[in-house]
Specification:
It comes from Ligilactobacillus equi DPC 6820. It contains 10 helices and 14 strands. With about 290 residues, the chain is α/β, with parallel strands linked by helices. The chain binds adenosine-5'-triphosphate.
Length: about 290
Amino acid sequence: MTMTKLKLTDVSKHFWRKPVLNKISLEIETGKIYGLLGRNGTGKSTLLNLISNRNFPSEGEITLDGQNINNNSVALNQIYLMSEADNYPKQTKVENLFKLVAASYDDFDQEGAYRMAQRFNLNPKEKLTNLSTGMRTIAKLITALNVQAQFIFLDEPTLGLDAAHRETFYTELLTSFEASEKAIVISTHLISEVQNLLQHVFIIDQQQLVLNQDVEELLAQSYAISGPAAEVDQYLKGLDVAYSTEVPGLKTSYLTTGLDDDRIIPDLVKIEHLDLQQAFIALTQKEASLHD
Ligand SMILES: Nc1ncnc2c1ncn2[C@@H]1O[C@H](COP(=O)(O)OP(=O)(O)OP(=O)(O)O)[C@@H](O)[C@H]1O
């Protein structure tokens, strides 16, 4: 049976009295690469831990094709989370890490893992404890990309990786994605680097899911409008401005919900599209001002 849809319904999480996630509802489908973005401490890792059953929602439900994932080994065999926290003994060798994962996930691609290890110059006989931070991340990434689960979650997958290794990782990730039907969810702060990989983006802020949108659509309606303050304000009147910055003589307003095509653009007003990182900043600034 192929499983295709992971669904969160009104998932909330609090640690003792501290609320971290509030009524998060979203769906993840196979065949797409998703970005899970948010400022530091907004609950991304917590959410990924809930999705992979390492922790439990305080409220709400997580299902895989309609079946609750809680202690559901069939469902959990289709969900893999790579994160900073690992439960492997420090003395474990890379090759044994592959074996350990192969023992809990069916059809782990050993051959693929060894090929990638070679590509990254990672010695499979090395112990995890003897590796540098970046190389230890690589060992875990290789494992994640060769697990034959349908939902792969990568929490800060480039932690400690140098620029060349990050490029290799992005290439390997795409190759692995294209060879499968899986869903990959990447949680990262390196937004510009992953922009071209992502089809869909989730943004968490102030405990809530504040964006759940295809990247192409978001970028098509995200703009920076700049010029003399009075003209910028006049042009944007009534539109949903996320936030603005101002230096004498120049105001820039950011918005992620589209412009009104019928309006005439004043001569001194300049309109530019935002990239994903700029759209992320605009959205999180907007949330911050709403909660001031
Ligand atoms: N086991 C726990 N007990 C108490 N509080 C926790 C626990 N785990 C996480 N938190 C709190 O939940 C909040 C969200 O943490 P989380 O690690 O999920 O954020 P994040 O978005 O992944 O952050 P970052 O981008 O900085 O890695 C933080 O305030 C953190 O202190």
